[in-house]
Amino acid sequence: MLPKWCDKYSIHNDEIDKQHKKLFELAANVEMISDKPIHKGQIKFLLADFFNYMKEHFAEEEKYMAKIGYPELSNHQKIHKSIIQSMIDLIQNIKSTNDLKEKLNVIASKWLLEHILREDMKIEKWHQGQLGKTNTTNKDEKQKNYEYICSCPGKIHKVPYEIHQKISSSNASYKCKTCQEAIKQK
């Protein structure tokens, strides 16, 4: 029995998660018909739907990986191409309705869901690691004090992150209480 979609398969991108959910649904439909008598035309329709949706999804996923700077993008693209090519090969070598159902089941379970559960989860793991690094840097940066000087001899002003950001980004100025001159970063 194929797994059902749940949040542990999320890569925290709404569009990609929505597509993965749809692919899980398509895989469930394939599993449902695998042991029932069904017309070859219905299977071909399901196969075409699956194939087209996979290609669309792979293109979107590749755009997302490029956007987040995923270092394994080229390897992941090769895997996508391999899945699509294998699917084309299977489709071209269909001998009977049962053969078609069997091959469609292989596509749904082996390639697609294994791909999501293994390869796509690598994207999520890497991305969360990057976000963790960013959050750590921001937390450290926010706790840091910045050194500013004024005209007072030897006086150093310890400026918290928020004030430093205001001075840096909006050209705000803060004056020393003693000399009444604007402080400047050391």
Automatic annotation (TrEMBL):
Keywords, sorted A to Z: Iron, Metal-binding, Oxygen transport, Transport
Q: Name one Pfam family in it.
A: Hemerythrin
Which intervals hold domain Hemerythrin-like? Answer: 14-123
Q: Does the keyword Metal-binding apply?
A: yes
Q: GO molecular function terms here?
A: metal ion binding; oxygen carrier activity
Keyword hit for Metal-binding? yes
Q: Which family does it belong to?
A: Belongs to the hemerythrin family.
The record, for PANTHER family, names:
BACTERIOHEMERYTHRIN
NCBIfam families on file: bact_hemeryth, hemeryth_dom
What is the protein's name according to its record? Hemerythrin
Q: Which organism is it from?
A: Campylobacter armoricus
Lineage of the organism: Bacteria, Pseudomonadati, Campylobacterota, Epsilonproteobacteria, Campylobacterales
